[in-house]
## 1
Amino acid sequence: MKQIAVIRQEIDLNGSNLYREAVRGLILEDDKILLIKVKKYNVYHIPGGGIESDESMGQALKREIEEETGYIIDDHYQEYGYIAEYKKDFKKEYDNFIQKSYYFICHIAKKGTVNLELYEKEEKYEAQFVSIKEAIEANKVYLTKEQLSPAATATKRDTLILEDLLENQFKMNYIKELPFQIPLLQGGKFTPITSGWSNDLKYEVVINKERYLLRLSNASDYSQKEETFLQIQRLNKLSPHFQKALHIGITNDKRFCYEIFSYEEGVLASDYIKSFSPERQYQLGYRAGELLRLMHQLKPTKKINSYTKIKTKLARKEEDYQYAGYKLPYYELMLGYIKSYLKENNKFETSFCHGDYHLGNMIISPESELKIIDFNRAAYEDPDNDFNRMLVWSRKLSTEFVKGQIDGYFNGQVVPDTFWRKILFYVTIDMAYGIIWAQKFGDEEINILLENNEMLLKDYNFYQDIIPQWYRKEKEYVTN
């Protein structure tokens, strides 16, 4: 399940902790939502509560909603997201109270019976259908006066969900506004694109039989997006193998930054790489390495200290890992390599990096040529960091492709040990702290992370080797 937000108070995680899981239901009807009005505080909460020890999530969801609202939901509820809370235990029975609230889209089946607890009666709970905007406004009025009480923390948590719901509703309806917001695209046919992990809104746009890719991000991101956009345009002048950056601007309502790219015809390399011979896989990888080397020739317009940036990022990741509360297998071994590498190395280069360079962000054109797409995570970083995704996602699909990418990057020359040590450093960071990201999306992503970590540890013989075992030149390939 996707993580919507994390709420943190300053707490000591080494103290005694009370852990609680809760379920809450989002019941929408037309433009309104079923909420609990807490009349004592004049706020609105989302119905739901804690999961009992003998209950499943579904059983708890049904019980809590009926008890608080008097409605029985059907079995067709859908995951929406969760919020994690780390705060002091207001009952003072423990030092800390750590809760995960799981939210589900639900549908009413029939009427049931309200059965409120004593404190809920005292706070005058009443189920009401109200507009999401009205509920948010009422909650924010209360939160301007109160922040730390139990009612305030619950109000803050549920308000974050209501705001997320409102934003999602707005985004779904915004497609109707696009021809008016971006004059360049008037007369276009817009089709939403839902694949991918970014929060950007994406659309395929067809105008006069020509296809384009439209991305929308927050208008506040314009400066950063423009810097990346200009670098992609520089790449377009150097090679036809990069997705074309065509136009960038701000929508007329000043809400979004828009970017218009060429829509690259072909198939995802990750889907089709195995259909090629080993030699062709290597050749495509070699081209990917050449293109990455070309990309890394672009330097930032201002000085950036990549070493300081990495140290800051690691400190934040370590803190997030402790809050995650997940004990990762071989974590100490991985942390040992990270610390020893940083102790011996403090000089890092800075280049324009793709940020997510692997087969899933590459297209194989109808002419069987490689095209690089999706620069959404591009940034100025140490160039060797652009190999971390390759060591996992591309390696899982084609070791021949990955061998080719490394050889192409170094123009067929001997790969230095310094490179091998550094890319192991970067992929180890992903291994050690990937749990922070994986937990946001649930058990499936956690299991994928654990499988990837096991694969990588074996590739490097549990840090006994700096060169992965699959990088053996059993045969030479023609590179063009």
## 2
Amino acid sequence: MTNKKNNTTHMICHTEAIETSRVYLNVKGEIMIGIDMEKIDRFEHWTEEGLKRIFSEKEIEYASQFENKLEHFCGFFCVKEAFVKALDDDTLNYSRIEVLHKESGKPYINETPYIKAVLKEHFKSRIEISISHCKEYATAVVLVE
């Protein structure tokens, strides 16, 4: 957030339990960045119904093809969280933020009519994302401009 008195930018960090650490940097202006990191074991006990409330059919299909599918679900969740943080808008519907992959394997947020409307509302036109995961954690960075 920018402090209007001295025009400085601050990074806000907050931890929501031992299992979950969330960090975000929200720069008001041309470029906004959201970052999220989650422990993968957070998703171990999610039911199929729980997954369907957050993830699209395409996301579930993609993640389910891997032995380490929880890493992929967690990465997708991190993208959704980071997107919300980048826009500083906690009213967004996570189930309507869909992460897909290009033929190259690069992930992207599907620009559905809902996402296009969100971008327009926030005077933004471009989204770039990056996801990383290992056995214990997943993280994602979302840039919106």
## 3
Amino acid sequence: MALTRRQLFGLSGGVVSGVGLAACGVALTAPGGSTGAVLASRVPLPEPFEVDLPQPDILRPRNGKASVTVRRKGIEILPGRTTEIVGYDGTFPGPTIEATKGEPLALTVNNSHSGRIVNHLHGGVVPPEHDGYPTDFVEPGSSRVYRYPLEQRGATLWYHDHAMDLTGPNVYAGMAGAFLLRDPAEEDLGLPERELTLVLTDRSFGEDAELEYPVTEGVIEYRYHAGMLGDVMLVNGAPWPRTDVDAARYRLRILNACNARRLELALEGEDSKDADLTQIGTDLGVLTAPHRRRSITLAPAERADVVVDFGTSSVGSTLTLVNRLDDGAMGQVMRFDVARRAKDDSRVPDRLSTIERIDPDSVVTTRDFRLSLGTSQDSSGQRRAGTLPRDVGRQRPPLRAGGRPRQAAPGHGRAVALHDRRPPPGPRAPRRLPGRAGRLAGVEGHDRCRALLPRRGARPHRGLPRALCPPLPQPRARGPDDDGRLLRGVNLRSF
């Protein structure tokens, strides 16, 4: 059953799980550690690699100011079909904002659609009043100026809606975009100037190519309580795209903006051999040193900064970016076609940055956080994750965050430095840290999003996660015109 457009974009908030937080669900129903379940599209889907990769518009501040407007617009996602989205400046994804470290930004967000919104700079170190608290609504027809100091390390961030009970459907409808914080200090590293930002999402489509999410009688269907997995892989809003590249090094800034799908990304050549992925950065900036990898695992909301040398491939060859946590169509992401030779003076130096090491002995307070589904307290009075006191974040850093959740749990909090609880590996034995999707011991870096895998834990050294696994929003919609009725369908085109 479909809702009106007004109901969708004004009242749809409480009916879907939030991006990057869907792991608070009930069970693993999908391969590869993803939570949630697949919703099949009801429209013919294109074959992979028939659509060119689009690049979002670039938005650069002028005199420290920039502005975006959230509005509804019909765009082409599936070839020859129109899909209605709600996005920043009416695009999906929104424009890529490029800012510079040390140059404060005043970002004006205008709300030109019928629902409440809140803007959040994911990964940003910002004052609390500008962090996009879920109930700091920007009402329809109004605007809000968000002030970002941008004194942190250069990194691949992203911005998205963060409204209470509306985050999931608002992001699903298109309210998300990349935010590149550039650090002038990186200019001396000689990294590639050829650069592609890749925003990865999965979506499902109805009979008229509308975005679709399952709700029955106003309630999320039980099998989707842990999030929804689409059956169309989108890169920058295009299904399974392809793009021409020079036979040269490229810097790829990759964002997993899926609702619940984990990705293990690898580059496969025509001979089925993997190409090297040289990871140079994570969520909050470049690593101390580059690390060559065959694949990179990203939880929802997580980012990776990667250099790929297409110069090792012959002109006319192709390399396919694949997702090894899925098979079939969802095991494909996009294709790179090596089109021409080109001069390339770029390099990847052995040393990228210096990161201050944090001494575990300096921790003055230790707290244990157990990740599990439940109410605010169990029979012993122990608090469950996601129901922490509001003032905990003002206390000194904790040492441990762990527990044994039944499914992967992406954590969204402040910057942390992960410490392996086991003895460090030898130089020939890199391995994954416990509780961290895709991190290798011996490579230093800071992260904001972490995936705690079942029956494992991690030890953050800096900052307290604001919500390791917040509870799912209630399936009741609240909005400026809420009359108390439950939503009776989610069909994004009909909203």
## 4
Amino acid sequence: MKENQLFSLNALKFVMIIFVVFIHMNPRIESYGEFSMWINQFVQVAVPVFFILSGFFFFRNGWNKNTDWQETYKSKIGKRIYSLLIPYLIWNVLPIINYSCGNIYSIIFKGKKADELIYYLQELWSSGLWHIWWDKYPGELPYNFPLWYVRDLVILCIVSPLIFFIIKKCGWLFPLFLSFVYVFQIWGGVPGFQITGILFFVIGSTCALKDFSLTNIPFKNAVLISSLFYLLSMSLTMPLLDKLFILFASIAWIGLFSKLQGRMIKYLAFFSESVFFIYAIHASIIMVSIGKLLKLYFPSKEIVYVSTPLATTFVCIMLYYVLKKLSPDLTRFLCGGR
């Protein structure tokens, strides 16, 4: 892949992480108005795009050229342990440490009773600590709930040899079949095996294994089709239309950015190194605190809805670069070597 295409896809990652922050606003009409529902639908494409890119880069090198696929698999898994699994384990524990430290501070300096903290820790232990990393919130998501993407991605990497052999045998029929399952909601999946992750990871994997260049995506057609389904999905209450919009829009975004170049792309790509940090930390107290603060100063719920994710992203970027300045090794470790 050419360097300018890597810049473009890194720029796309940064745009998509902003979309992810918007998704976690979880808007309702009574809270932020109908405008927020249009935006919320538009940004739902973010996680599928990340899955497509993950599948594409996982299978891009080695699998077709190296006849010893076991060595390729071992190498890929070894890298993902450092880049995905270890950060996943850490970032699901950090919110618990943060909550516990806050309570300990209140107990020592503000005279707060320890009952709440004791009950919280007892509940974590009695329900099974493993749920923290699997389905603690709310029964299907890990404790740091946005990290369900990493959980599912780790599982997909583990079963990648199976995906490899099915694609080699069936080709594009495999993602087409999964698209049918996804669109018609025949099977939604279970924690760790969500159909969203499986489908879009397989789409990216198939592109890589079939040597399909992302620049060859007919993004103009994908944009037109996804725009049609977007308008229909906002006019009619049909989950099928939502799925069709997400499917075609994810392809459209990747096709569009794979062709874009210029100074703006380089600027966006520059900040892509902070994407994992933003992803892991934004849903903590940062987003909630910024939202409450903005509500005090802006009476317009539409302004609060738009400005909260943007301000949250900005604060997360600043925290990333401050941490990177103070301890680059720690920052790199927390972000999986990124």
